[in-house]
Design goal:
This protein is an all-alpha fold and 91 residues long. The chain is 75% helix and 0% strand. The longest helix is centred in the middle third of the chain and has 30 residues, at 46-75.
């Protein structure tokens, strides 16, 4: 049963299944990223636009954290230690 709201179309709430579906859509590697950008820039519904923007911010935050971890690992010799560990255990 679909609820009806007395609000303009651009303010209509998104259902729980809608958020779930958009999360799955945004997780598709290339197509999802394209849809994410399209929704973040041009969605008519404010809730879709804000959800896409928050998802995009989450991706950026994850990339920053991964980058910092890689820099720390590289600066402390973590990659060399990992390569050495892999070489010793392959034989």
């Amino acid at each position: 049963m679909k609820k009806t709201y007395n609000v303009p179309a651009e303010l209509t709430p998104i259902s729980m299944w809608g958020y779930f579906g958009y999360s799955i859509l945004f997780n598709i590697p290339v197509v999802g990223f394209i849809f994410l950008i399209i929704f973040a820039i041009g969605a008519k519904n404010v809730n879709k636009k804000n959800f896409a923007r928050s998802y995009f911010c989450g991706i950026i935050l994850a990339l920053i954290i991964i980058g910092i971890a890689a820099l720390i690992s590289g600066a402390t010799g973590g990659f060399a230690a990992l390569a050495s560990f892999i070489q010793q255990n392959i034989k």
